[in-house]
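Example 3.2
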Amino acid sequence: MSDADLIDVQEVAPAEVAELDLYQRREKIYTRKIEGFYQRVRIFTGWPLLLGYYCLPWLSINGRQAVWFDLPQREFHIFGLTFWPQDFPLLAFLLIIAAYSLFAVTVSAGRVWCGYTCPQTVWTSIFMWVEQKFEGTRNQRIKLDKQPWSFNKAWRKLGKHGTWLFIAFMTGMTFVGYFYPVRDLVYELVTFSTGKWQILWTVFFTLATYINAGWMREQVCKYMCPYARFQSVMFDPDTLIVSYDHHRGEPRGSRKRSVEDPRSEGLGDCIDCELCVQVCPTGIDIRDGLQYECIGCALCVDACNSVMRKMDYEPGLIRYTSERELEGGKTHWLRPRIIGYIVMLGLMVSVFTYNVATRVPLELTVIRDRNTLFVETADGGVENIYRLHIVNMDRKPHEFVLSIEGLDGATIQGETRYQLGASDDREVNLRIRADADALNSPSTELQFEIVAEDMPSLRAVSESRFMKPL
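Structure, written as tokens:
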């Protein structure tokens, strides 16, 4: 390369090289406390769920923990009902119903689940309340973080994090209490006699709660939660969303409270106080339009309405509305998607309720011995060998009687009465004998039936086949 070429390269080269940072640094959000109608609604939706979460493991029904998922015994006790792994289709069906319910609510009312009942939102609200109690208002928290370390700052920070850890520990311990008897767990934790797995999972969920609700907060909603990503696919022009009325609020600007008609001064109703931004837990400006970070908590609605009332303006500059209504139309409440979801939910709930109500807590599985198709006896008879697995999923012991149908003249070579305790199972090996001359085909369908002697409605049926020589 010649000197002239070098000069040309140097002339076109930029004087400064800009760096592109692919990771945005998090800016801490200092939320302002606000009260209003929707925040009172959140109290009545969040607190019952929170109290239910903490209290359910302590309830007992017939001497047993009301909600207990006993994994080692593969039994799941839910309010007097005992489910086994064989009942997992019911769980899958229940999850499908929950998913369709979430879809129906999202289509009609946006992200109200996130704003009012999501565990991340509920626990984060509790942690933020604790933070306000120890560190003060928004301005006081900002000032405190900028101050050098002192005794006042230290005890407030330690008190906040200590309370956070206590709430997180209670949350983690309660969660483990759904899988391990909670009363035994508390006693073992107090006496330092618990097992390593109970300690491991309690610590894990304690740290998960402390980090998610105390430190990450809006990061979970913005970057980790998949619901925020696919919600836009489910929205339509009639979906209720928290929105800013751009036509009414613009142009923004401060003004004196004595100004009755802001239009006379070329202004909209928005006084640009930014209170809606300061109360937002995800740190967005709702005036910029619909954003996936919005969780529909309506904090900005209560904040804006409080300002509108002070200015003697009509509330609702920020409100629950639809895109169609913002454009001057009328929201369509009953539309094909909503009707479809309602019909599907009604059908699925009916089928699920029927299956649970008619569920028989007894299972019979019959497996024919595949190594030995049949055994010919000296008196001209034929025997088949079977293995039966009987599961008494009821919470009471029963004596069961076994019988067979579909094979004339066949007899059971072995015991036909079985005593099974509550939530007990047993495997039984037996032989079925029949005369070869009475069999019309090489393979005959055979039906096994087992019935509780003290409860005829408790019965189970299983089919198999009886084989004979050709």
